[in-house]
Design brief:
The complex is a heterodimer of chains A (281) and B (311).
Chain A (H helix, E strand, L loop, with lengths): L3 H22 L4 H6 L1 H11 L15 E4 L5 H11 L40 H14 L6 E6 L6 H12 L5 E7 L2 E2 L2 E2 H4 L5 H7 L3 E5 L5 H14 L6 E6 L22 H9 L9
Parallel strand pairs in A: 1-2, 2-3, 3-7, 6-7
Antiparallel strand pairs in A: 4-5
Helix pairs in contact in A: 1-3, 1-4, 1-10, 3-4, 3-9, 5-6
Chain B lengths: L2 E3 H15 L3 E5 L3 H4 L2 H6 L4 E3 L4 H11 L5 E7 H4 L4 H10 L5 E5 L17 H6 L5 E3 L4 H13 L4 E4 L4 E3 L14 E4 L4 E5 L3 H14 L4 E5 L2 E3 L3 H11 L2 E8 L4 H12 L4 E6 L9 H7 L4 H13 L2
Parallel strand pairs in B: 2-3, 2-4, 4-5, 5-7, 6-7, 10-11, 10-13, 13-14
Antiparallel strand pairs in B: 1-8, 6-12, 9-11
The chains are: A alpha/beta (281), B alpha/beta (311).
């Protein structure tokens, strides 16, 4: 169990990893990665019951599925810093012959990845499948998933949402990265999603909401609450309000950094706001 | 000759698997009766998952269920098993190399009266293009049952294609199905007829007509389109020196396309293809449609006559 100070230190280092990974290739998705750093760090270091000696079947482990695969930089950094693979491998992100593909995949057998994601809207169905198998196996551990808010525009998500409540998939905790932005701009300008809470409630999910999705203590509390409420006949969704680009002042408050990498000068400024804590890769 | 539908062969195979393999789970998108999955559902309600009319979700759930060791069999019509969910299969199943068995009924024009919206003729092409995917198209009830049992033992994604109409059930009830191993049904020296699915029976009928014309055809059942049994094809063709392919599928992307690629690379020899030529199907009885779209034994005979002249 990490203290809040230790988690903060990890988050700062992970933000550096994300920035350096996308900068090296001049490609990748820093905005959502930075916005979900606190969530994934808290989940992996303090909540998931997992084994970094990777086994695909994950029997008697909690499993996590990243449905919005484009925020792979934060997942790769969190996995490496959890001990799934050497942090040196982060330097290969998006390069030829790398296991760290632009979007996560099982194809290169990277430890910690259980399904390919990137084409949006598919991860919730996969998570439900894994949750059903856990039930068949009488495995009491939980399934976690993360989705972009823009990703909820995909129809498959709502097929899955409908299925999960109808079939009481209550060993599933889905989180929505609710930053209200997507590539083309504000969600409200692209395709307004209306009242997400009401939508999930109408589909008979238990909805938890956290307004401070970049605050470590708040994230930890909402994850604990979700776990407590699990196995009670309803799937759970956490609407996690986050700030895209969190931790880098010029990347916050805009959708511009969804899929753009910083240049040399911008990287330097961004890194100066996140000084090295645990050692760069 | 006993007449039976290949989909019932799938149902019988699934029922048997339910009893013999506790890892097997079945998912269906509101077509349990059409896919003949009722018996499995009744015997093992805890291992049967009705997902409703939501095929994309079904493919994703199937992919997820493999994590933890289950062997999911999905069931819906071939059209909704492929074109409707191509990206879900591509990313969550094929690229992720998940042990999902995509079981697809009502393939081709012999679905009949429902018409072109439901008569997929492109599915073999779509599925064979996906890396990791095995593509199987058995010819009758017995072979479909045997194939259903065999794919449960195969690790990796499989597309199993079968159909709706009752057709002659002529292969051995106790056959062992070997994935990727073509079956020689009749020796011959004048032409190799390579057929798959419902067209295997038509090829055997064609061989009788050809015999009366003093043409001795070799008939090979290519039940596995991918991986293709190249050795069996080359061995036959090196003897007969010409080929006719026959399938209830679009010429583009089907068995004929795979054979054309193989021959042009390794043994360029005359080839004629029996299949649907760049058109959609329509409503009608299965037999009427096979005749209209050129998928009968007579069409195979005509193709043979043509290809022999090109030798």
């Amino acid at each position: 169990m990490k203290t809040i100070q230790e988690l903060e230190s990890l988050c700062t280092q992970i933000r550096r990893d994300i920035l350096r990974m996308v900068h090296t290739n001049n490609s990748g998705h820093p905005g959502g990665s930075l916005g979900c750093t606190e969530f994934l760090t808290t989940l992996y270091f303090n909540h998931l019951n997992h084994n970094t000696k990777f086994d695909m079947d994950g029997i008697n482990e909690d499993l996590f599925f990243l449905s919005n695969g484009h925020i792979s930089p934060v997942l790769y950094s969190v996995l490496a810093r959890s001990g799934y693979f050497d942090i040196k491998e982060l330097a290969t992100f998006r390069k030829i012959d790398s296991r760290l593909q632009g979007h996560p995949t099982t194809h290169e057998k990277l430890e910690g990845i259980r399904v390919a994601t990137g084409s949006l809207g598919q991860g919730l169905s996969v998570a439900i499948g894994a949750a059903l198998t856990k039930k068949l196996n009488n495995d009491k551990q939980l399934i976690y998933s993360l989705h972009g808010d823009g990703e909820l525009q995909e129809g498959q998500i709502w097929e899955a949402v409908m299925y999960a409540s109808a079939n009481k998939v209550d060993n599933l905790i889905a989180t929505v990265d609710y930053n209200k932005k997507q590539i083309d701009g504000e969600i409200d300008d692209v395709l307004p999603m209306g009242n997400l809470r009401a939508k999930f409630e109408a589909f008979d999910w238990l909805v938890l909401e956290e307004k401070n999705g970049n605050d470590l203590e708040s994230v930890s509390n909402i994850l604990s609450e979700a776990k407590k409420q699990s196995r009670n006949n309803k799937p759970i969704v956490i609407l996690l309000h986050t700030e895209m680009g969190n931790g880098v002042d010029f990347m916050m408050g805009t959708h511009k950094w969804h899929g753009n990498a910083p240049n040399d000068e911008q990287l330097e400024i961004a890194l100066s706001q996140n000084t090295e804590t645990l050692g760069d890769y | 000759m006993e007449m039976k539908d290949t989909r019932s062969g799938f149902g019988a195979g699934l029922t048997e698997l339910g009893k013999t393999n506790s890892k097997v789970v079945a998912l269906c998108a509101d077509l349990t009766g059409s896919l003949k999955m009722n018996e499995f559902q009744n015997n093992h309600p805890e291992r049967f998952f009705q997902v409703g009319i939501a095929e994309a979700n079904m493919m994703g759930i199937a992919a997820g269920m493999t994590i933890g060791g289950k062997i999911p069999f999905t069931g819906t019509f071939a059209n909704f098993s492929t074109s409707r969910v191509y990206d879900q299969i591509r990313q969550s199943i094929a690229y992720s190399n998940k042990n999902v068995k995509i079981c697809a009924s009502h393939a081709g024009v012999t679905l009949g009266e429902d018409g072109a919206t439901h008569q997929v003729l492109e599915d073999i092409g779509m599925m064979k293009m996906l890396p990791h995917m095995t593509v199987i198209n058995p010819c009758d009830f017995n072979q479909t049952k045997a194939a259903t049992l065999a794919i449960a033992e195969h690790m990796g994604p499989v597309y199993l294609r079968f159909g709706r109409p009752k057709v002659p059930n002529f292969t051995d009830a106790n056959q062992i199905f070997e994935i990727g191993k073509a079956i020689n049904l009749k020796d011959g020296n004048d032409v190799s007829i390579l057929a798959t699915g419902h067209l295997v029976w038509e090829a055997l009928e064609a061989a009788k007509i050809l015999n009366e014309l003093n043409i001795n055809a070799e008939i090979i059942n290519i039940h596995t389109i991918k991986p293709l049994d190249k050795d069996a094809v080359i061995k036959s063709v090196s003897k007969t020196r010409c080929v006719v392919t026959a399938e209830e599928h679009m010429l583009n992307g089907g068995l004929g396309d795979s054979i054309a690629q193989l021959l042009s690379r390794e043994m360029p020899l005359p080839l004629e293809m029996v299949g649907v030529n760049d058109t959609f199907g329509e409503s009608g009885t299965p037999r009427q449609l096979m005749e209209k779209y050129g998928l009968t034994s007579n069409d195979i005979v005509n193709a043979v006559k043509k290809v022999i002249l090109r030798k």
